[in-house]
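Quick one: structure for this chain?
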Amino acid sequence: MESATPVGGRRHGVRAFARTTQVGLLAVLLLMPTVGCYDVRPTMDLTPKPDVDVSLDLTDAGRISAANQLGPEVRSVTGRIVSSTETDVTLAVRDVSYLRGQETHMSGESVTFKRTELSAATERQFSASRSLLLAGAILVAAGVFVGTRGLIGQGGSSQTEPICPPTGCSSSFHP
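Got it. Here's what it folds into:
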């Protein structure tokens, strides 16, 4: 009987694991800017910056002033700074938080606030280092999970002895 090369041996399992890891890493890298880690810190620099979200907390006077455009009892607004002067800040508003806990999503409407109507400002900026650290931890955890569960085939021979009729196997009968 001839010996056949095993189908899908250990090398196949390692290659499949490597390909799965590469696809997972690519997916994580592509999705990181949308779900990655961010740094949030107080700021007094209210000048327009690309890729930086700003959250502005309003004073009571700011709530009254913003009521016509955003509704009553606005606690804070989040968005990108469109322009700023010494007295005003114009924000492309993405989210509005109200005093009673409600939140509203907006599509970037420009709203101008007087600086005197702001009680605090924080900026939210994407943190590549934190996101990569998180992505690495997720990939290691996934690798450990897969490795300890035997979810990647270890290969081996799938060859079995032929089943022969009671009269025996002839050379023409072998599959």
